[in-house]
Design a protein that fits this description.
The complex is a heterodimer of chains A (269) and B (332).
Chain A lengths: L8 E10 L2 E11 L4 E5 L6 H8 L7 E6 L2 E2 L8 H4 L1 E3 L12 H7 L9 H5 L3 H20 L15 H13 L5 E5 L7 H15 L5 E5 L3 H7 L2 E6 L2 E6 L1 H6 L1 H21 L1
Parallel strand pairs in A: 3-8, 3-9, 6-7, 7-8
Antiparallel strand pairs in A: 1-2, 1-4, 4-5, 9-10
Helix pairs in contact in A: 3-6, 8-10
Chain B lengths: L1 H5 L7 H20 L2 H26 L7 H19 L3 H25 L2 H20 L4 H4 L5 E2 L13 H25 L1 H11 L1 H6 L4 H27 L1 E2 L6 H14 L6 H19 L4 H15 L3 H13 L9
Classes of the chains: A alpha/beta (269), B mainly alpha (332).
């Protein structure tokens, strides 16, 4: 047996309850560095709950999440970016009245150290930080084709463009792990293809590991090396897309007949 | 397109520098052409503008509604007045103390503010505004505060034998302090901290995911906002040479809020218009109708809101954008 690299993200027996409802009943899986892991499951299966546990929005009752060698249990939400976890949001959570440029720069917040006094006095450290952030920003504006709209208020842009702004805002912080919450939601067929190409293009240069919650089956199956399937807060499958696709429980519980056709379609494409 | 990329709120070009220089020259020039009454009025414009500036940072940038900013104004005023009247401090030496005391109170008010949002925060700060004049009247403190009678201070004079009247000097002194406050606020808002403030206003959950610590940011913003408004209060105390509890009733807080909205909530230069509105509009309303100045004031206010729904600052920005005839970016 070949030695596997140490996982970047290790979810261990995580239990999350809301009142009496068990949203996650002891979920475990590992994600290796530089992998794209798709997290699938029907509505209410616990995907988003797990996502929110990893990004610190929910506090899980039991279990542990280990990221890059250290536990995330009890780590404050605003420390996650500094730990190397970036994210996007299901329905896009941009700072709507700020320009695209300002939105993306906020993503670099955790890279800076300057506080109120340094900023008010515009000390050299502030200028240095601003210059460093601006250089990263310009590269991202070009990479994600946002240069033309850099000074527009983010809220005025079409939805697919807003999604790219959100991606840029996450990327400027140089995350090791990128959490994407339904990145294909609200996109048409061609836009989903573009998204898949984009993920493929950025993962290498940004040295990214990606955890992807997605309903869009063909996207998940196409871009992921690993797929984890959840149902009712439990893991029912974990493996390569081909393995998960064959798993009878997945077919029964999640895919159903329509999605199965979808999958065959994706497999033949 | 490249020209567009250079247009951004944080940069300061030659045109802006010239405009700023001309504006300052005019403001300084007033010291030598205005009579003492008008100089007093202009000094008060500066004091109110600084007070509104504090509110701009807190409410305009960070989205924390304060209906109690008058309390910080009062605390700054009284800090200066107590030191000048009771301990014979020179007026200029009281400013750092007024700043520190106001900042401390703002810092403490920031803690309950963490758990409260929107309308509840508005009510909490309103409660502060209502209680401060009462506290200033308390008998146990009257040795310090002068109780209901308040405190009277000596008039400040020009230092170093400068050939300036006291009114001229106090105006120029206030203008200098005001410029410093505007410079600090402008610096604060155009970099990392300012972006974090606006991010919290727009989308707190996303701001946190980007690494912005909400608690630390809100508390510090409260402290800075209170400090700047407190310095405005100190400047007004030096100019008026008198403080009394009833000058700082809750109506002052509402007035500062009006100044904020009229100037443009998230406009740093707009705070100056807000200060001018606070100082001049009640007088103008009084000149128009002695019988019902409140009604005239209300009518002027409504007129402003219709003509400039985003305040003077927002309106001017929109006009500049039209003047530059920047085409809307092609949206993809």
């Amino acid at each position: 047996m070949i030695a596997l690299p140490a996982p970047l993200l290790s979810v261990r027996d995580v239990v999350m309850r809301f009142g009496g409802v068990v949203a996650l009943g002891g979920v475990s899986f590992d994600v290796a560095p530089n992998q794209i892991c798709g997290l699938i499951g029907p509505n209410g299966s616990g995907k988003t709950t797990l996502f929110n546990c990893i990004s610190g929005i929910y506090r899980y009752a039991e279990g542990d999440i280990v990221f890059d060698g250290t536990s995330l249990t009890g780590v404050k939400r605003h420390r996650m970016a500094g730990r190397g976890i970036g994210r996007t949001f299901q329905n896009v959570a941009l700072f709507r009245s700020l320009s695209v440029r300002q939105n993306i720069l906020v993503g670099a917040h955790h890279l800076g150290r300057s506080g109120f006094i340094a900023n008010a006095l515009r000390l050299p450290i502030v200028r240095a930080e601003e210059a460093a952030a601006a250089a990263r920003l310009d590269a991202l504006l070009d990479l994600l084709d946002l240069a033309r709209v850099a000074d527009s208020p983010a809220g005025s842009l079409p939805f697919p463009t807003q999604k790219r702004v959100e991606l840029a805002r996450a990327l400027i912080g140089a995350p090791k792990l990128l959490l994407l919450d339904e990145p294909a939601g609200g996109l048409n067929h061609a836009e989903v293809d573009e998204l898949a190409a984009l993920l493929d293009r950025i993962r290498g240069p940004f040295n990214l590991t990606i955890l992807l919650v997605e309903h869009h089956m063909s996207l998940v199956m196409r871009v992921s090396e690993q797929v984890v399937a959840l149902e009712f807060g439990r893991k029912i499958a974990d493996g390569t897309p081909a393995e998960v696709r064959r798993e009878p429980e997945v077919i029964r519980a999640y895919l159903g007949e329509t999605a199965e056709e979808d999958l065959r379609h994706a497999a033949s494409a | 397109m490249d020209a567009d990329r250079t247009v951004s709120s944080g940069r300061f070009g030659l045109t802006q520098a010239l405009g700023m220089g001309a504006f300052l020259a005019v403001m300084v020039g007033f010291a030598f052409i205005a009579d003492s009454y008008h100089l007093f009025q202009l000094t008060m414009v500066v004091a109110y503008a600084v007070a509104v500036l504090g509110l701009t940072l807190l409410t305009g940038y960070t989205g924390q509604i304060s209906l109690g900013q008058g309390a910080f104004f009062a605390i700054g005023s009284y800090s200066t007045a107590i030191l000048m009247a009771n301990y014979d401090w020179p007026y200029w030496a009281t400013l750092p103390v007024a700043a520190a005391v106001s900042a401390l109170v703002g810092f403490l008010i920031g803690f309950p503010a963490l758990r409260l949002g929107g309308l509840y925060l508005a009510l909490t700060t309103f409660a502060l505004a209502v209680s401060v004049p009462q506290i200033l009247k308390v008998n146990a403190l009257s040795d310090f505060t002068g109780g209901v009678q308040g405190l009277t201070m000596d008039k400040a004079e020009a230092p170093f034998g400068l050939p300036l009247t006291g009114d001229q000097w106090i105006y120029l002194f206030s203008l200098g302090v005001g410029c410093l406050m505007f410079l600090l606020a402008w610096n604060l808002t155009r970099g990392r901290t300012g972006r974090a403030m606006m991010a919290v206003r727009e989308q707190a959950v996303a701001a946190e995911a980007m690494g912005v610590g909400l608690a630390a940011l809100k508390i510090r913003t409260f402290a800075v906002s209170a400090m700047i408004t407190g310095i405005g209060g100190a400047l007004s105390a030096i100019a008026v040479q008198f403080v009394a509890p009833d000058s700082f009733n809750f109506f002052l807080s509402i007035t500062l809020f009006v100044g904020l909205v009229v100037g443009g909530v998230d406009s740093i230069p707009g705070a100056l218009f807000g200060g001018a509105f606070i100082e001049f509009i009640p007088n103008i309303a009084n000149d128009i109708s002695k019988a019902a100045p409140g009604a005239i004031y209300g009518a002027i206010l409504i007129g402003f809101m219709f003509a400039l729904p985003r305040g003077v600052g927002g309106g001017v920005m929109a006009m500049l954008r039209r003047a530059r005839r920047r085409p809307l970016p092609e949206v993809r």
